[in-house]
Protein 1
Amino acid sequence: HPESWLPPLTRSVPAATIAPTMTDHTAANLALLERAFPSLPALLARDLPDLAPDLEPSRAGPPTARVRRPDGTEVWLHSRSDPEREAERWADGVPLEPIATYVLLGVGLGYPLAALLRRVAPGTPVIALERSRALARAALSTVDLAPAAERPVVLLPGVAPEEIYPLLRPLGERLLAGPVRFVEHPASVQGFAREYDALRHAVTRWVQSGSMTLQTGMALGRRFMANRLANLEAYLESPGLLAWRARARGVPAIVVSAGSKYIPPALFHQLSPNGGRLVIPIANPQGEYDLMLVIR
């Protein structure tokens, strides 16, 4: 079960039951966050066991929240006096780098995420992990995430550790432009250390895999350019493939080992008109490959 890692004392909570009575930023925030992560609405809508946070106004006005841990003890996720000011002070202590990707462990009602976004440079990727979808929905309603318009933000609400890699893999090149720095929302991580530790390990595995892929691509790219420059004179004087096409007519069979999105017409015309065969893997809309046999 994708959420078997959650504590047993959980239940499904409709978003409407925890929405604070103040300006609702949900629609505007979702419109911004979907640009970087189109899967967010589907994750928020999943009907799976979830935490049941209690919201109440702080003395300063903005809501604060408390949740119950498996042992029955309660954890206040934000200040009961002024949660916005608390988040600003916390964000002031976060070490910032000119080029980095920040992974926020614990979003709560969104105060730490909003404060962090106001401090990182435009273009800085931020991955925000919140173990509760109910809290993530409340965060989208509570805080204004307008800075996300200039910063790619990936919000992962209520995901299990094994879901991290498939969700982040398509975003690797955009999110791994620099070193990855973990930032903890203290109350979330202290209250649910085991769960956030598992999520941290899952993100670390994704970073290691993605970094290896990027490094391999860069190494191959450098080698390609080195070969191209070393053979530049011959490359410029070469007639290319055109001179070979006339000599490669009437081929009885061609086997293509690298996949393609379509059947190259040049290969088809090289086949013998008397039953020449082409075997080639062609990508389908699902991103997989179908092995096709073409007979001329």
Protein 2
Amino acid sequence: FGSPDGDLDNVLFCYDVRLKAWWTYTLDVDEPILNMIHIDDKDNREGIGIITRHTVSEARKRMARILLVEDTPTNQDVALAILKKLGYRADVAGDGFEAMDALRNQPYDLVLMDCQMPGMDGYQATKEIRKPESGVLDPDIPVIAMTAHSLIGDREKCLEAGMDDYVSKPVDAATLAHTLDRWLGQRLRNADDDGDIIPAHPPAQEKGLDLPGELYDPEILINILMGDRELADTIIKGFLEDIPSQIEKLRQFVDQGEAGEAEIQAHKIKGAAGNIGSRVLQGLALTMEKSGNA
């Protein structure tokens, strides 16, 4: 049964006449659903749902394997939650070294790469991935940078490292969905693309403490998580358990005069604070990060 618009009435009609496959006239010719069409009969009416192009799309998402490279627990939780809600599954690597090990041992379709990490950062890791002698299973795997900077010049830095695209943190679910669809859709259908970076948001300069002054705005995280307040509460709890030790690490780096380590640590705190909606802490961490880079 074909439908030009795919509306709900037509879906209900399909149930009524026991059709087990339904598609629209705009269906792509490569959709595997074309090989799955059959009409129900009395022997197989139970336990089989209607197959739609949306079902196929969700199945394609489940087939995709994503590696999330992120060292901050709060940011890991937020990113994994968004990916799950978008229908994807992902493994986590805590730094560039773990990412390299994972890519050498497991086949992945895409990497979401944090840029600022201790040890081996995202830029260094991507450069290693692109080397033919790196030992990774796929040196050409799409790498999407996740950056809390979004500064002018980030695009060039990502390109130089071999990254394919980038999204800004805090991650916007709709933007991430579009970016993943662009790169995974291309990859899973073996389509060609120009490979150039199309930034999810235009680059903009960050501004010290020129951020809204709310100590904590719970709606920011709730919006990121697409309205899931229960999950937001869980992530906030994890943040409150983790952030004292992160601040203590920053204090120690400052006391020891380790400006580089302090910059990286402040960046971590800034990203986590931005994700959960603590704009004041985010602004303070940004100021310290810039001081470490001075």
Protein 3
Amino acid sequence: DDASGDRTAEIVKNYPVQLVELEQNQGAGFARNLGAEKSRGEILVFVDADVVLLPGSLKLIKDFFTQNPEYAGLVGNYTELPQDNNFASVYHNLFTVYHHQLSQPEIEWFWGALSAIRREVFLKLGGFNTTYPGASAEDIELGYRLAEAGYKICYLPELRGIHLRRFRLSSMLYNDYRKAVLGLKLYLTRKPRGAHPHGFSNPVNGVNLFLVFLSWLAFLGLILAGSMSYFLVLVIFWLVNFRFYQFIRQKAGMLYLLAGLILHWLGFNAIALGVLGGMAGLILGKGLESRSKWI
């Protein structure tokens, strides 16, 4: 318990588990490293505080490592639909699920929301980087170190957890912005060369960023000269992402698809701003250790 302000510690004490309590909040990396040091099992399982494992998940993890001794770690995914059914929560959940599903079976990244790793390997590599503030890029960075050290990580799509977080439009857009800032810094400063990119590095997303940057210029044309090119760029953006929208319609229905068209566009505008924010941060000397919320 990383000095939480709720009833976490009180509730946990009702169960037959070892509770490790911190007097001051130290961040996800520090807390999880301490938990790993105190643990006794051969396999460490990491689950975010807002994720609930589906029944049978721990057995699935145990069986995987027993049957696949060549793998050091594994990563799961969210269930297709989250607990909350508002537009922002459903869209953001489907966005994550869709891109995880684009990943190859063997990957070079780790995901703190739902993952497992052999304890011996985790401790040998020094665990999560504790210099990153809060819960930020420490999980992806660990995946890079695993790959650089020659360890194999598996994306296990059968391993699922229900995401409980409720997003509002503002929190969704800030989340996208912040992840882009961190992702850009991590990609430029830490990513090793490899053949197993994250699903988020799908080439379509590169096209999406280009179209968003182009739309900003087109928007100036709309304001200054009445040009309709902005709407042309928007239509192209939607056409390029047809498969993702089809995925939304299949999993959540037409109403969420219509909302997803708008949320996806707004989300990528936030991501594009985050890319610029990450570049600005690196130029100003604010690396991944920076506590700035914006760059």
Protein 4
Amino acid sequence: GFLSVSGSVGFKLGSFKCGLDSIRLGLANGQMAISTNVRLNMMNESDRGFSAESRVIVISQLNEEKTTISNGKVTYEKVKTRWSFDKLKVDDIAIKCKTTAYELEGQIALFEKDPVFGTGFKGRVAMKLPVLPKKVEAHAWFGSKEDYRYWHVDAFVPIQIPVSPALSIRRLLGGLSYHMERPAQFDPFQAMAQDTTGIQHTDALLTYIPSREAGLGFLAGVTIATDPSADVFNGDAMLEMSFSTSGGFRYAQFDGTGYFFSDVAKLGKQKPNGDGGGAPVFAKLYMRYDNSNKS
């Protein structure tokens, strides 16, 4: 069970305003925990500036201290129990910044002792600029395994660059990674469109997995569409190259997907079974040269 206290508490951390609310005290499975929502405002309220929010959980455990006591005739054991600090858990950290020049919104999630990714953090940030038609989205993943560290960063930039009177570039993708590689036929464009509910689903986007053999990796992509309407045709193209830790060439792969009679704003239409979903006509092209396996 747990005990909840409503209301909020405001205080200052240095010169920054902080707030606590939704304080809870709980006991389960021999552990006691206290949690609270924490808010931190990094700028003046009048500036409507940078702020961060998360939920912090302090977990304690019950320890037993046994002492053997003897008076020469009788020997008995004395047990003393006390609570001690076990660990601190921080939920997803939400960040938000709004100014007259731009808007910034994102989340950061921490993970620990994951069987695949080890220990580290991942995050996503979306920035809205007046000169761009949509938000710029960036993603990052930093972590460590037993004997190496890894990272991945990428960014999706909406843009409008005419290529011909009937065709234009609608979006650019760029990414870098180290000690990480993406599975064959993974499509970041599709994953980005499906990832609409927050950091909990960032795994679907960053389907890069740690690899001891992988060194630096580069990813570049573009979305193109017909003008003035993208309903006639829109498509994505990506090129990726990966090198080993010694600098040798590992593999290169090219992905291309074209959709006909389907709006570019509805990316993510391809279902997991590959039937194209809402696009009545679509085509895919995938090529990979694996230098390590000579295939």
